[in-house]
Amino acid sequence: MGGNKMDRETLLEKMEARLLTEAKKTMEKASEKEKYHALSKVVMEEIAPNWIQSEERFTNSKKAYYLSSEYLMGRALTNNLINMQIKEQVEEILEAEGMEFDALEEQEEDAALGNGGLGRLAACFLDSAATKDYPLMGYGIRYQYGIFKQEFNNGFQVEKGDDWTRDGDPWSVKRRDRAVTVQFHDEEVVALPYDMPIVGYGKNTINTLRLWEAHGKKAFDLETFNRQDYQGALEEEIKASAISKVLYPDDSTEEGKILRLKQQYFFVSASLQDLIHKYKETHEDFREFHRFHAIQLNDTHPAVAVPELMRLLTTEEELSWEDAWEVTTKTLAYTNHTLMAEALEQWPVDFYKKLLPEIYEIIHRIHNQLLVELRDRGISSPEEFQIIHHDSIKMAWLSIYGTHSTNGVAELHTNLLKNIELKHWYDLYPDRFNNKTNGITQRRWLLKSNPELSELITELLGGDDWVVNLEKLQGLRKYGEDEKVLERFDDIKREKKRELADFIQIHEDITIDPESIYDIQIKRLHEYKRQLLMAFYILDRYYRIKDNPKEEMYPRTFIFGAKAAPGYFRAKGIIKFINEVKKLVNEDPDMRGKMKVVFVENYRVSYAEKLFPAADLSEQISTAGKEASGTGNMKFMLNGAPTIGTYDGANIEIVEEAGEENNFIFGLRVEDIESIRESYDPKVPYEKVAGLKRVVDTLVDGTFDDENTGMFQDLYDALLKGAHWHKPDHYFILQDFEDYRRTQRQVEEAYRDRKNWMKKAWANVAGAGKFSSDRTIEQYAKEIWELQKG
Ligand code: KOT
To answer: Taking the model in full, what pTM does it have?
Structure first.
């Protein structure tokens, strides 16, 4: 083997050897899972030498580091083979031996160490940085349990543990030599790193994702020299290892759990110590630290990096406070991913005082320093500048003050940050604020998940440059009226729809019609994303057909995929409600040939790869101003699904690129919401919009059974009475219902003219160039990190 070649003999011999030593089996007798593991280990052997070389190439360069509590990586095997450009060869070799590559691929557990958009963005960024030859290293936590596995029991979500490394993890290298200790007030914990290679497309640059696992100190030492106190070591190990035991399955609210705070400090301190140790090997002067390091904070979860870096620089490296502050702010940068007030992290001062008293003192000093700075500049210091306020620490404000850059993730989101949510801060530090519209990697979300469309694009563009330069898709625009091309595009869409139908048949036990419109909403379950709006629409359609069995309906398959945070009662109620609607619709013979509802179980990255390519319609229907960006919207677009959506997040930019006439925009805009908010009364649409009352009332009139959980009554109350601190229908579902229904009509009419529909779909593919995470990463690298390419 060598270069980008994988020869037959070597591959098979190496696999055989792996199977013998690790499974005590011959190729003949080995299971598919065992073969998957053997193959992956062989691929790792292929990666390893390039990995080291790549690292050496960047030895003296400035490098960037991504600090994130989440990485939603998904599967690695096929992605690595594709990026190494040996997938076809390997597939051929294995198939000649009677193995089915796809079956081996399906053996891999998703590495699902994240909740949703924020974690998946981190994964796309790593892929893009490696591909674009930027030295970007990811730091995070090696959770033993990733995001829970979702099952439905009688329509209710049930969570099961995700022991993703149970059968081993061929993609990680344990680095015992680089373990560090993390000091809490009354506990010392060992952080043990595992490195995963991030192979750039073309294998030129291979970066690293370093994930920390927590261990007790005694247990760690026992193995080597201290052979006493097994009992004590065991207890300590249990306590320490709890830190990296499980990902918090919460995508929206801060639970305020002390263990979560421990997780944050654990990985942030370990990562910064790691950088400092490495720096010391070749440098002495820590006043130069920022010239070699750019550290991006993925939301505020790693915001404790501000005081921790101050601590390390002032106490361990003896910089003055002033020098340390300059280095810290010049090194760090912060990305905000949400405007949802309840997701803005705040920590009770007491937690910090108890767990991290030294860090608390530093935060307090930072807080005071800002007040002095404001006083000196003659600026009053309103509440918004009190980093410590009412006994809690505002992590977003600490992050803005302690870094040189704060960015939002779509134009609208950044503008709302600047002009509303963080207006005071923007007025104080206008130069710090900037936008970095999110993106996705076309390697996973087109090349891997839709090889058929990839091939067509490559043929039409006369090359596969688009794989590393998505703007090339512009070149597809000229085929927008080309019937032959559109027919081939249509054939591919149909093929992907058949494949999804087969998968859904097997995994959900539902038969769907590949000729129907696949109308898909896949994302975390949250009230603001308004899965309930789509459910009401389906139910309204159902009743109309019942009222008038002759009513025409172009056959449609409504597909949902979503996990709800286990403690988010109302989101779980929405899941149960959709599953009830699904049962009603799917079991009614009158709906045959008209509609079906699917709620895929355990929606995850590997399932998403099958859904996006098969979609006809992308549902992006969040309340305007609530979705920071969205990234699923971009994956649909790239695979040729027009959007039905609101003017929210990156939808606005998507429509700008693909053309408003090729998408279906509806509903209130941010300005509309602001102007009606105070006077809005959902009873008005509830009473006045034909059919709306009927569907809303199914929540409480006995149509559906929530088994006395009170879930449906709670949903009803949230819509019409308000609950907690929210006014009734806080997310304007009832207000937007009519326009959504009207727009869905337009979708149906447009789809009847399938040729014309494919033109719209094509315009979306051709316009998707902007939404590559390669572009996003270039912007971070140039505008925030000031990196050179390798
Ligand atoms: C969760 C908890 C606290 C703070 C932020 C979050 C968060 C935000 N988690 N995911 N997001 C999403 O991030 C994506 C990537 O930027 C966005 O596309 C999406 O709109 C956010 O909801």
So the answer is: 0.98
Number of Cβ atoms within 10 Å of the Cβ of 424: 16
d(CA 266, CA 76): 26
337 an active-site residue?
yes
Distance from C-alpha of 573 to C-alpha of 567, rounded to nearest angstrom: 11
Q: What is the band of 343 on the pLDDT scale with cuts at 50, 70, 90?
A: confident
Is 412 contained in some domain?
Answer: no
Q: What is the 3-state secondary structure (H, E, C) of 594-634?
A: CEEEEEECCCCHHHHHHHHHHCCEEEECCCCCCCCCCCHHH
The H or E element that residue 399 is part of is: helix 395-401
Query: CA-to-CA distance for 646 and 374, rounded, in angstroms?
Result: 40
Ranges of H-type helices in 666-753? 670-676, 683-688, 692-697, 711-720, 733-752
723 found inside a domain: yes
Average pLDDT of span 705-714: 98
What whole-number distance in Å separates Cα of residue 162 and Cα of residue 620?
28
Instruction: List all residues 6 or more positions away from 632 whose beta carbon is below 8 Å from its beta carbon.
Output: 117, 522, 523, 608, 612, 618, 620
Total domain count, the chain: 1
Q: ipTM above 0.85?
A: yes
What per-residue confidence (pLDDT) applies to 299?
A: 98
Query: Pick the catalytic residue: 78, 131, 441, 631?
Result: 631
- pLDDT tens per residue across span 526-554: 999 999 999 999 999 999 999 999 999 99
Let me know if residue 479 belongs to a domain. yes
Question: Quick one: pLDDT at residue 539?
Answer: 98
Nearest Cα neighbor of 370 from 306, 288, 314 is 306
CATH of the domain at 724: 3.40.50.2000
- Cα 149 to ligand 1 centre (Å): 20
Cα 71 to middle of ligand 1, angstroms: 12
Enter the DSSP assignment of 702. Answer: S
Residues with CB under 6 A from ligand 1: 116-118, 121, 251-252, 299, 337-338, 343, 409, 438, 627-631, 649
Residue 785 within any structural domain of the chain: no
Residue range 388-435, pLDDT digits in tens:
999 999 999 999 999 999 999 999 999 999 999 999 999 999 999 999
